[in-house]
Amino acid sequence: MNAMERVTIDDLLKGAAKIAVTGHVRPDGDCTGACLGLRSYLLGLNPAYMVDVYLEPAPAVFSFLQGYDEIRLYTEGEYDLCFVLDVSDAERLGRNAALLEHAGRIVCVDHHVTNAGFAPESFINPQAAATCELLFDMMKEEQIGRETAECLYLGIVHDTGVFKHSNTTRHTMETAGALMEKGIDPSRLIQDTFYAKTYLQNQLLGRALVESIVFCEGRCIVSMISRKTMEFYKAAYEDLEGIVDQLRVTTGVECAIFLTETEFRVFKVSLRSNRRVDVSRVASFFGGGGHIRAAGCTMTGTFYDVVNNLSEQIVLQLESE
Q1: Which of 275, 264, 273 is nearest to 301 (CA)?
Q2: 257 phi/psi in degrees, rounded to 5
Q3: Distance between CA atoms of residues 306 and 286, nearest Å
Q4: How far apart are CA 179 and CA 176, in angstroms?
Q5: What does the DSSP assignment read for 107-169?
Q6: 145, 40 in Cβ contact below 8 A?
Q7: What do you get for the CA distance between the two ends of the chain, in Å?
Q8: What's the pLDDT at 77?
């Protein structure tokens, strides 16, 4: 089922007492907010529910969210129901894909255009700005408490770039407004989790900008952080958050590419575009996925191999204008 008819979270809970919630590898704000927001909502409905959240370590900047300290890393036990949030395909679950084999029912809630409906019960809406926006639509507003609202608002803020990306709609803003009325502190949340940077993060951003390269007559920009650089700075991958978006806002650039070397000649690829390039198509060509303006994949080869292969797909779209 791939549907967005009015089905509530409450409707999906029938017969469930042990519930697992999980999201994609390297969880971002939307993924973390969605998972912890749903946990908070479920426990608000019934404190007797057993709700376990499984995620890779989420950025410490989100540690103020209720339930963060109780996140589990890897699958344990059997569950009546498993919610898979902000995940476009099973591979994006990493080791927690094992949950799909240990749950009586699997429900996916997602907004990625590349999600083909891998879960038996899928609620997918690519027009939504964030998975947290979809969850809000599936929850009963009067049952959303402050802690749940904080989680959902954070997810929307991060996936819209504080409401500046083209995925922001009137409904997105109305949803954010309704969450604000639950008593959250939006200014603090935005400043502390989106804009605030550590000295290390600023060092890495500066290096990425200085070492960036423009090509395709200035319409594309690329930069890379190597394993050697990560080791030198003793950096974690969460310290690279926001670099690709800063590359994207370079005047004249249509498409930004940021590569992170995770293993020898293995790169995590982050893609962003402004108006003309559907980067989800580019990422899908190389086995990844995402959104029209923000997507990613993993590629192997030298830096130049990866950039050349990506640029071929990007140029195909630029030349078809």
Answers
A1: 264
A2: -125, 130
A3: 10
A4: 5
A5: EEEE--TT----SSEEEE-TTSS-HHHHHHHHS-GGG--HHHHHHHHHHHHHHHTTTTSTT--
A6: yes
A7: 35
A8: 85
Separation between Cα atoms, residue 79 and residue 50, nearest integer Å: 9
C-alpha distances in angstroms, 256 versus 228, 240, 284?
22, 15, 16
Average pLDDT value over all residues in the chain: 95
| 208, two tokens | 């990425």
Cα distance between residue 25 and residue 56, in whole Å: 6
Maximum distance among all Cα pairs of the chain, rounded to whole angstroms: 60
Q: What is the pLDDT of residue 5?
A: 59
Q: Is 145 exposed, middle or buried (0-12, 13-18, 19+ CB in 10 A)?
A: middle
Q: What is the pLDDT of residues 257-290, one digit of tens each?
A: 999 999 999 999 999 999 999 999 999 999 999 9
Residue 303 buriedness (CB in 10 A; 0-12 / 13-18 / 19+): middle
Q: Cα(159)–Cα(175) distance, rounded to whole angstroms?
A: 14
The tokens for 149 are 């609202």
Q: Are 55 and 100 in contact (CB under 8 A)?
A: no
Question: What is the identity of the amino acid at 264?
Answer: F
Residue 4 has pLDDT above 60, yes or no: no
Q: Retrieve residue 142's tokens.
A: 């009067």
Of 299, 231, 227, whose CA–CA distance to 270 is shortest?
A: 299
